[in-house]
Specification:
Elements (H helix, E strand, L loop, with lengths): L2 H12 L11 H15 L6 H8 L3 H4 L6 H17 L8 H18 L1 H7 L7 H16 L4 H26 L3 H13 L10 H13 L5 H22 L3
């Protein structure tokens, strides 16, 4: 396709408006999809429902996303983009990765239903590409050799996404279901006798407190601490 034809095709898409007079765009579709998923869960991700919410003929959405899976990848990429919005590296690799990890977790908790659907996907889209480049840049500038930088990147991202998906699934539960799970620690584990379950009985109160919140921040700190030790060991082995 020539530059001229590309501009014409893009212009044709941009001229399309919804019944409410809003200009239809990829960003608007993704924003609406996020809202519908938050309200109705995975079943909201259909062209028919999106078209109704946008006030647009469903067929118009195919100009932007040929499939619902393509739309899901765009939703996943938008969550990544929200994680990085406004982030500026400080030059301290450990502090930068910690902030990015916490930002990622917070963004996914803002959209728990979408996170549960999308956290495991590899999008190849702009926000994800920027994230990969940024994290590797933080690590390489921090002094990690390339192989170690890739290894730490893998651990960092997979740990963050695993916790994001798990915590998002919990957050997406109905309030009564979440409360019922909390009560299990009080009504089941807290009353187990020391004669049969000595370890649980000895730590029951600690378990109630600890299991009431996400372990992500602690896991992230442990991961970064291990990475720092590996970096220090590698530095000590380099010839002077």
């Amino acid at each position: 396709m020539t530059d001229r034809s590309e501009r014409q095709a893009t212009a044709g898409v941009r001229r399309r408006r919804t019944k409410q007079g809003t200009m239809l765009s990829e960003a608007l579709i993704v924003e609406t999809a996020l809202r519908l998923i938050r309200q109705h869960g995975a079943e909201a991700l259909t062209v028919r429902r999106l078209g109704a919410a946008l006030g647009s003929d469903p067929s118009a959405l195919y100009r932007y996303f040929p499939s619902t899976d393509g739309l899901l990848l765009a939703v996943a990429d938008e969550l990544i983009g929200q994680s990085y919005a406004g982030w500026v590296p400080t030059g301290d690799w450990r502090a930068d990765l910690r902030e990015l990890g916490l930002r990622m977790h917070a963004a996914y908790q803002e959209h728990p239903q979408a996170a549960a659907l999308a956290a495991h996907r590899v999008t190849g889209r702009p926000h994800e590409v920027h994230a990969v480049e940024s994290i590797l840049g933080v690590l390489r500038r921090g002094g990690f050799a390339d192989q170690e930088a890739v290894r730490i990147y893998h651990l960092f991202v997979d740990t963050g996404l695993a916790f994001a998906a798990q915590d998002a699934s919990t957050a997406a539960l109905p309030p009564e279901a979440r409360e019922a799970e909390r009560q299990v620690w009080r009504r089941t584990y807290a009353v187990l006798p020391a004669a049969t379950h000595p370890n649980i009985a000895a730590t029951a109160r600690l378990l109630q407190t600890e299991m009431d919140h996400s372990a992500y921040a602690q896991s992230l700190d442990l991961l970064l601490e291990t990475a720092a030790r590996r970096l220090a060991a590698a530095d000590s082995e380099r010839p002077t």
